[in-house]
Amino acid sequence: MKLKAFLCVTLLAITMALPAHAYDYTISGVSQAAFYPSTNYEQMYGASYVYDGTNVTDYMTPDLPYGITSNTSIGVMDTPLVTLGTSTGSLFSTALTAPTISYTQPTLEPTISADGVLGTLTIPVLDFQAPIYIDTSTSSLSKGVGHFSNTATWTGNVGIAGHNRGSAYTLGDIKDLDLDDVIKYTTDLGTKVYTVTSVTQISSTDWSRLTATSDNRITLISCVENEPNLRWCVQGTEF
Questions:
Q1: pTM here?
Q2: How many CA atoms lie within 13 A of 206 on its CB side?
Q3: CA-CA distance, 67 to 236, in Å (whole number)?
Q4: Cβ atoms within 10 Å of 26's Cβ, excluding its own
Q5: How many whole angstroms separate alpha carbon 187 and alpha carbon 67?
Q6: 175 contact partners, CB below 8 Å, separation of at least 6
Q7: Euclidean distance between CA atoms 109 and 102, whole angstroms
Q8: Contact 198, 208 (CB under 8 A)
Q9: How many CB atoms lie within 10 A of CB 233?
Q10: What is the CA angle 54-57-58, rounded to 5?
């Protein structure tokens, strides 16, 4: 016991003798501007943003079967779904191949109303409720939110798009959601309740969040104000 006590005292003395700088450290912060550089739509695209017309940044995903995402996604927040070619000045030097995804098209589908409404999106904490139209056309997004046609309508990953300003119903405030906040998706089949699992910014060309999933989830995508090459993306899983 005396030997153990002696060793403990000796070790404590050595530790206290170390200079303070051996413990001190600092983390250099990176300015917010480094992550969110200022951009100008007119300079980037050579045209003014038209809220009631077609724009470069509108939500026009490729016409792909349910469960397959765009093969041009670079996945800035995730590992890319495909192997990228070697860069040679252009974006890629080799053609990209869409991944092979096995899926079963759900047999249970909501009924679409005569005016193209799939259902209703409700976010209680934001006091938000909007009709969900069956597509993401300019017309649909001017009067509600839109459903990504290559995502699930009931079972699986339901993808929803909305403008962040300039329309009757906007999703810009999804950036303020917190983990475990509730999102409700209602159709004639009933109401699914999801809890928020992630709130992130993604590239405007990153469609990987809309990939078919084995669990039931909802994916909300909206523009980032004054950042035409970015999107807010919120995902929630069924409660």
A1: 0.61
A2: 22
A3: 18
A4: 5
A5: 21
A6: 199, 224, 232
A7: 19
A8: no
A9: 23
A10: 50
Query: 112-162, pLDDT tens digit by residue?
Result: 999 999 999 999 999 999 999 999 999 999 999 999 999 999 999 999 999
Answer whether residue 184 shows pLDDT above 50: yes
- What SS3 state is found at 231? strand
Per the document, the length of the chain is: 239
Considering the four listed CATH numbers 3.60.15.10, 3.40.1180.10, 1.20.1250.20, 2.40.260.10, the one that applies to the domain covering 110-238 is 2.40.260.10
Report the DSSP beta bridge partners of residue 162: 222
**For residue 204, pLDDT beyond 90:** yes
Quote the strand ranges of 150-213, DSSP E.
Answer: 157-162, 182-187, 190-203
Phi-psi region of 147 (alpha: psi -120 to 50; beta: other; left: phi over 0): beta
One DSSP character per residue, 103-136 reads ----S--PPPPTTSEEEEEEEGGGTEEEEEESS-
Specify the pLDDT at position 21: 44
